[in-house]
Specification:
Layout lengths: L1 E6 L3 H12 L4 E4 L11 E4 L1 H10 L2 H5 L7 E6 L5 E5 L11 E4 H10 L6 E2 L4 E9 L2 E8 L4 E9 L6 H6 L5 E13 L10 E6 L2 E7 L4 E8 L12 H12 L5 H8 L7 E7 L2 H6 L3 E2 L2 E3 L14 H17 L13 H31 L4 H21 L10
Parallel strand pairs: 1-2, 1-10, 2-7, 4-12, 10-17
Antiparallel strand pairs: 3-6, 4-5, 8-9, 9-10, 11-14, 11-15, 12-13, 13-14, 16-17
Helix pairs in contact: 1-4, 1-9, 2-9, 9-10, 10-11
């Protein structure tokens, strides 16, 4: 019998396990891969993520590695016009944005957990619930034949979550866009300033941002479907598709960074999201089962909030489950359902709002070629609306007991 089983060992799963540890609840993390997954290479963490990492007690391990960024530039590929974009936070404000290696973030979270907390190569086959001694218990069957009982199950198993399907949530939908991501490596150093550089073209948007003195994170979002599978997963072919086709008209500075890519970091995936009304009206919890991270609120990356929101989820969920710990240090399962309902009430509307804002942000920046769409993007969005959208990232999810 486990206190809590977390299905999925990504950002949401490991952060939730750390949060539960801090409130005195033992968790077992089931991860289907053979080791920590770092798909996507890197991600930007905004102030709301750093508030959550503070609550988890790990922010200082990352801030020493990654300097903050405060502004960026957007270049129109066709007209060469450049405009500056500021991200709101000022230096030393404590509400800063930083881009971090996804793998390093996962390793920092994993280091906080007791040995044997993460069970790798563990693929979920089925889940069911039953009542034992007046309390709801989950029965998890793994593909290797293992049967696990748990008082609480949290689905952190990504966009195509098996736990979300079990709860009855609708499948995420394709946004009609895809994204290629990678990390460029300069052994002798790249000499770039710590500023976000973005490039917009008809139905395309790209950018890069330094991670440290020798590595640069880059991305390219486009309407073309991901061809990675058709290319046999060959990163060399994906790289050639970017340089010779998708980004051939982009500035030499961008193409140089793409050309320095570590091929092992390249990914090309469809951008999926869940309709916000499904998050507002859907069953996000049932009995003693719930979801967090991408399993709850998959969204497009246009505001950089997927990982940030997952870290928020972990702290909020840890706080509500921690309220069930008795004076003897045991998890009282009688009120698990109420605690999970409270967690969902706190998260539902915020998640739906950010799904909507992220989708609209991507649509405005990438989908327009007409004069009025360019006006909406360059004058209305970048000068007025982006600042309001970024203000939502200064949210504080609170502390853990």
């Amino acid at each position: 019998m486990e206190e809590v089983v977390i299905v999925g060992g990504g950002i949401a799963g490991l952060a939730t396990a750390v949060a539960l540890k801090k409130v005195g609840v033992r968790a077992l993390v089931l991860e289907r891969s053979e080791g920590l997954r770092a798909t996507g290479a890197a991600l930007s963490l905004f102030p709301n993520a750093w508030h959550a990492l503070d609550a988890l007690g790990v922010s200082d391990k990352l801030t020493s590695l990654y300097p903050p960024f405060f502004k960026g530039y957007v270049t129109d590929v066709k007209t060469k016009a450049i405009q500056e974009v500021r991200f709101g936070a000022s230096k030393g404000s404590g509400a800063e944005q930083r881009t971090v290696h996804r793998k390093i973030l996962l390793e920092v979270l994993a280091e906080e957990l007791p040995p044997n907390t993460i069970r790798f190569s563990s693929k979920l086959a089925s889940i069911e619930t039953l009542v034992e001694q007046g309390s709801s218990i989950c029965i998890l069957a793994l593909e290797d034949g293992t049967i696990i009982k748990s008082k609480v199950v949290i689905g952190c198993d990504g966009v195509h979550s098996r736990i979300a399907r079990w709860l009855g949530l609708s499948e995420p939908v394709d946004s009609g866009r895809s994204v290629i991501r990678g990390v460029a490596v300069y052994p002798q150093g790249h000499g770039l300033n710590h500023e976000v550089q973005q490039f917009v073209d008809i139905s395309k948007r790209a950018g890069f941002l330094r991670l440290n003195d020798k590595e640069v994170y880059w991305f390219l979002s486009c309407k073309a479907p991901p061809k990675g599978a058709n290319m046999g997963g060959d990163p060399g072919l994906i790289l050639r598709e970017v340089t010779d086709n998708l980004a051939k008209d982009f500035p030499p500075s961008y193409l140089d960074i793409v050309g320095h890519s570590d091929l092992s970091t390249l990914t090309w995936v469809s951008l999926m999201f869940r309709y916000p009304w499904d998050v507002i009206l859907g069953n996000l919890t049932r009995a003693n089962v719930t979801v967090a991270g991408d399993a709850m609120h998959p969204m497009t990356p246009d505001l950089g909030q997927g990982g940030c929101l997952a870290l928020e989820d972990a702290v909020v969920l840890g706080r509500h489950i921690g309220s069930l710990v008795s004076k003897r240090g045991e998890l009282d399962t009688r009120d698990v359902g109420s605690a999970l309902e409270s967690y969902i009430r706190e998260r539902r509307w915020r998640a739906a709002a950010l799904i909507t804002a992220s989708f609209l942000s991507g649509w405005v920046q990438q989908d327009g070629s007409s004069w009025w769409m360019k006006f909406l993007r360059d004058v209305i969005f970048y000068k007025f609306l982006l600042g309001r959208a970024v203000s939502a990232t200064r949210y504080d999810c609170g502390k853990l007991c």
